[in-house]
Amino acid sequence: MENLRKTKKIIEKNAYLVLGTCRNDIPWTAPLFYASDKSLDFYFVSGKETRHVKDLEENSNVSVTIFDSQATPEEADGIYIEGTARQVAVSELPKAIKLIYKKRFTDPSELKKHVHEVDDFLGHNPRRFYKIKTGRIYKLDTESTSEVDKRVEIDIEKMREIL
Fold first, then answer.
1. Which residue in 40, 71, 83, 128 could disulfide with 75, CB within 3.0 to 4.6 Å?
2. Alpha-carbon distance 32 to 109, whole Å?
3. What is the pLDDT of residue 51?
4. Average confidence (pLDDT) over 157-162
5. pLDDT tens per residue across span 127-140
6. Are 73 and 162 in contact (CB under 8 A)?
7. In angstroms, what CA-CA distances link 106 with 23, 90, 103, 114, 118?
């Protein structure tokens, strides 16, 4: 249960994830602001011409890491995700927009200055929303006494219950 609580804290506390993509056997990583939902889906907004978007258009398999880059080596903790990513469907855009902008602008008066409509992310507009569907999730095993880092798999269904 402790690993579930720590995983939840990592997801809720951090603002950025590192997305790993690959196309034509050439890997790429991109740090991205994210928001997540109770299904463990992760959302980000990005330019439709960016390298990571072009990569996932050809290969939807992705990896994700979320960690506190300011933690000391003794405090280090993080999660690792295997999943798939795709552009958010038009019907899901209101949810994605709300999740991202509520997380980004926690002050209600600031949030009001950044109201976006679905059309802002369609057609000729350069940005799109994307969704990462979690397949498997792992966490750094901070309880291990090994000199080498180890990971433990997190039960996704139990994780969803505590979100």
1. 71
2. 24
3. 98
4. 96
5. 999 999 999 999 98
6. no
7. 36, 25, 6, 11, 21
Please state, as a whole number, how many other Cβ atoms lie within 10 Å of the Cβ of residue 111: 14
The residue type at 21: T
Dig out the tokens for 55 from the structure.
């990569």
Please report the domains of the chain, with CATH numbers, ordered by start residue.
Answer: 2-158 (2.30.110.10)
| Residue reference for tokens 């000199």 | 147
Two tokens, residue 136: 């498997």
Greatest CA span in the chain, whole angstroms?
Answer: 54
pTM passes above 0.85: yes
pLDDT tens, 90-107?
A: 999 999 999 999 999 999
Residue type, position 159, single letter: M
Judge whether 42 and 64 are in contact, CB under 8 Å. yes
Tokens matching residue 131: 């969704």
